Amino acid sequence: MDQKIRVLVAKPGLDGHDRGAKIVARALRDAGMEVVYTGLHQTAEMIVETAIQEDVNVIGLSLLSGAHMTLFIDVTKLLKEKGLNDVLVIGGGIIPEEDIAKLKKIGVSGVFGPGTHCEDIVKFIHKNVKK
Amino acid sequence: MNDISAKVLKGDQRSIARLITLTENGSPLAVNGLREIHPYTGKAYVIGITGVMGSGKSTLIYELTREYRRQGLKVGIIAIDPTSPFSGGALLGDRIRMMDLATDNGVFIRSMGTRGMLGGLASAVYDVVEILDASGKDIILVETVGVGQAEVDIIKIADTTLVVLVPGLGDSIQTIKAGIMEIADIYIVNKADRSGVEQAVAELESLIEIACTGKDRKTPVLTTIAKENKGIVELIKEIEKHKIYLKKTKIFDVKRRKRYEAELVEIIRKRLMDFIFDESTFKGKVESLIDQISKKQVDPYTAADEILGKILK
Question: Is the ipTM of this structure higher than 0.85?
Fold first, then answer.
């Protein structure tokens, strides 16, 4: 059996900065994963519905606008509502230190800020993904 | 019947997604599901969309889907992107142009990596067409990887094949007349707001005139501006006309038969390859033969005979 890790990389809300998301997407591809990239300005509904149809193991949310406490929570809440409990959710972007603990509590398992090495994200996914 | 098969037949999005994943991963669990749904397939009309990179295939699919949805039809979309032969990973970005469709329950979109298949398709694509068909989709749109000349496998699966070009390819249309220029049921010159449209259409038409001598159907050339939704209704009418033509001439049945032939060959090919290259089958025999070939102790044909001889007793 050839089981590949599938990852959704999404940019929720009004935020036009997608360089980081694209770099991460590429790094995950180079690590042998199948990465579905949604592009900009996604709603929580779009992200969760895409995660269902693409049957991904991981959702990576990228946000630099400061609205992560609202938008990340919208996504994790909707995932729970839809019963997608086995999807690993990680986040990246400009996230203040004090928010990281709160985000982990609501189901964002890993938060990666500026300066993160791509291989650390790859390692984190391999360690925490539910197959 | 399995729970998952029953749910696929009811159109449950999560079950469709799950069965596709199991199929892509070559899971034995998938085979049961695929067996059970097969009797319920054959209703969906399959449209293949192929063409050069950047010709607007994804945008065209988005607009076609919106138009089919207006007509009340359910649509399945399979968007294929290349898997890296080096890492085995893939960046699947076709959805970017279709995100507005994500929350429409009458649409199911799946992105696939080619996972080692050449020819512009993914190995599991036949099965995914069956799954979407069984789930009640009326139309299935299959987008191939951005092609050069040789990626023509789409005709094995599609009832109607659309080849998408853009103005400005110029004389290169003449040079690429092999391969993708031989498989079109309908040509589309997209991005028709750019200069050079008339020339592109004229070149295509002169090409068709040479190619179609003696045929009872002349391949139509349409112009579209997908991002402005121009030419889409006309395109759908042309697809409908092609469908009627296929049914009238019984070519439809021949095509469907060829699809099943291709699917059968693909299943056998995959199972055979998995069997041969499964480590437990020959316990290092393949590896040791490769070593011997490298050291010139054996030639590749003798080595192949040795492996095949064990199977074809």
Answer: yes
